[in-house]
Amino acid sequence: MTLTKENAEKYLLQMYQIRAFEEQAEKSYMAGKIHGTMHLSIGQEASAVGSISTLEPTDYIIGHHRGHGLTIAKGADLNLMMAEFYGKANGYCRGRGGSMHIADIKGGNLGANGVVGGGLPLAVGIGIGLKMEAENRVLLCFFGDGAASTGAFHESMILAELYQVPVVFVCENNQYAMSFASRDWTTSKKIAAHGEVYGLTSTATDGNNLIEVRDAVQMGVDRARGGGGPSLVVNDTYRWRGHSKSDRNRYRTNEEIEAWKKKDPILKFRKYCKTEKLITDEKAEEIKKKAYADIESARVFAESSPEPDVQTLEEGVYAP
Amino acid sequence: MREISYLEAVREAMTQEMERDPRVFLIGEDIGEYGGAFQVSYGMLEEFGHERILDTPITELGLTGAATGAALIGMRPIAEIMFMDFTTLASEQLVNQAAKLRYMFGGQSTVPMVLRTPAGSGTGAAEHHSQSFENWFVHVPGLKVAMPSTPYDAKGLLISSIRDNNPVVFIEHKLLYKTKGEVPEEPYEIPLGQADIKREGKDLTIIATAIMVKKSQEAAEQLAQEGIDVEIVDPRTLRPLDTETIVNSVKKTGKVLIVHEAVKTGGFGGELAGVIAESEAFGYLEAPILRLAGREVPIPYNRNLERAAVPQVEDIIEKARQLATLKV
């Protein structure tokens, strides 16, 4: 698919916003400003942006616990997102969800999920609902290589194919389920094969190549929108940071991390855009600067936002 | 008024709600041509077709999550888990997802779904098809739990559950499916959180759920002949709980016996006892709060053993007689 200059700039901006958000998240944590933990997606930006670039604004995504990038790619308000990360009253979830549960329902983001594989069965039902409402909307369901070993994944593949739901399942294979190396039991190609076993058209991509991701997911989105049912795309990528803040990186070598950093999805996309004469180095630096400035103002917004009132603790458990 | 069975009342509630609201659909194992393991949805496939009667392979986790996901975007699914024992397989999606999506998203979404499931022993189906897990779900903020004991309550509570904007665990008792009672033909709602006094009396209160309401009614007839006048309170929904009706009854009689089929330790009876003890009814108690509940065993196969594992009419009579003479 051809890439317009406008889209190229948008995707580069989103990738830099994700990188900047994650770096800021880490800094805020180190400065003792963040309560709890977080799961950073630095190194996986092309998978999030490339996949979600195929959607219309009215389409849906549902994510996983490493979901900051997905949320930004779906067009979240960075201020409200950062405020939620800080647990503030004006965050997307009023400080109830935090890093692992950011959702923007109006924006079509049905939420990150704290249970590995937790979003997969939900995706089947969202797909059933989308089919019933018949408005030609589709869903991208993101999960990781860790989720690919769960029973929820296999049940969901079977049900998705049975009901021919308009869903593209996107596996972000970042190589590790916490410390467990996915290479010890599977590969991206094999995860894709699991989709095929159940009848889903499945592909594995270089998940650090935005164009490749976008093309593969676009095929799935077109199929889903055309009534052709679900498909599976496995993006082969890598998380530069640890699983969460408790990670001591005992299960992998620095050489391995450095080797993957050489496959930086942002630099890869910049190189492509330069070759295709879509974005000059100068323009790219300008975009990068804007992304970091956007995140800096989100930080200021979040830090100056109010804490939730403890009196509101029980609000929102039940709907009226 | 016409009489129909508890099973027919459940079916009628689902049918009428599906006719009224195109967002309502059924999803579960063998609920289509087979009609469900207990025939609750028998005949509904003919009326509503495969688009709204979604038969699934054996995927309790998957189908419960599918119901939750559909509810998240505005559908109103009714999931059936064939036996309550199998809610163990579904509980990740029910407890972690359905119950929490609204709260953890700061109130941005609603999850209007019902998970129907038959509980209870007495069918000779042994350990894996006889359990009563209601209290596991009562323990989860975000869920509502309904447990009807009559055909009338089954229809009214199910209609309310389907129309409710929250996930409701709707627990049916297998031995009640064939029991008959008066049920209006038109749709009606029984509010979730409204107990019902199934029998008025002045000497002692029995708080009972599901099949134990029926057994307590039989026991009460016998006890009446002995001069013990029993009041029976059926909470009907365990979450939310109508504490007012319970407290008022205990204040009136001064004595209370709690009867349920689920195992006593960690069962709902403990919660009821706590609610009473913390309330103004405490000062009216003329005897300790007594509980009669399932024994501390898995449900066994042998008929006599199975019968002995849960309260029977004669056990309720004996316990009530004991309570009648007990003093603080």
What features would you describe in this structure?
- The complex is a heterodimer of chains A (320) and B (328).
- With 320 residues, chain A is α/β, with parallel strands linked by helices.
- Chain A has one domain: Rossmann fold (3-Layer(aba) Sandwich).
- Chain A is 45% helix and 10% strand.
- Chain A has a five-stranded parallel sheet, sandwiched between helices. A two-stranded antiparallel sheet of chain A has the order 4-5.
- In chain A, α1 (5-30) packs across α2 (45-52), α1 packs across α11 and α5 runs parallel beside α6 (151-163).
- With 328 residues, chain B is an alpha/beta fold.
- Chain B has two domains: 3-182, Rossmann fold (3-Layer(aba) Sandwich); 196-325, Rossmann fold (3-Layer(aba) Sandwich), CATH 3.40.50.920.
- In chain B, β6, α7 (151-163) and β7 (168-173) form a beta-alpha-beta unit.
- In chain B, α1 runs parallel beside α7 (151-163).
- Chain B is globular, with a radius of gyration of 19 Å.
- The termini of chain B are far apart.
- The relative contact order of chain B is 0.12.
SSE blueprint and pairings:
The complex is a heterodimer of chains A (320) and B (328).
Chain A: H1 5-30, H2 45-52, E1 60-62, H3 68-73, H4 78-85, H5 119-133, E2 139-144, H6 151-163, E3 167-173, E4 176-177, E5 180-181, H7 188-197, E6 201-206, H8 210-225, E7 231-236, H9 254-261, H10 265-275, H11 281-303
Parallel strand pairs in A: 1-2, 2-3, 3-7, 6-7
Antiparallel strand pairs in A: 4-5
Chain B: E1 3-5, H1 6-20, E2 24-29, H2 44-48, E3 53-56, H3 60-72, E4 76-80, H4 87-98, H5 101-104, E5 114-119, H6 134-138, E6 144-146, H7 151-163, E7 168-173, E8 180-182, E9 196-199, E10 204-208, H8 211-225, E11 230-234, E12 237-239, H9 243-253, E13 256-263, H10 268-278, E14 290-294, H11 303-309, H12 313-325
Parallel strand pairs in B: 2-3, 2-4, 4-5, 5-7, 6-7, 10-11, 10-13, 13-14
Antiparallel strand pairs in B: 1-8, 6-12, 9-11
Helix pairs in contact in B: 1-7, 3-4, 8-12
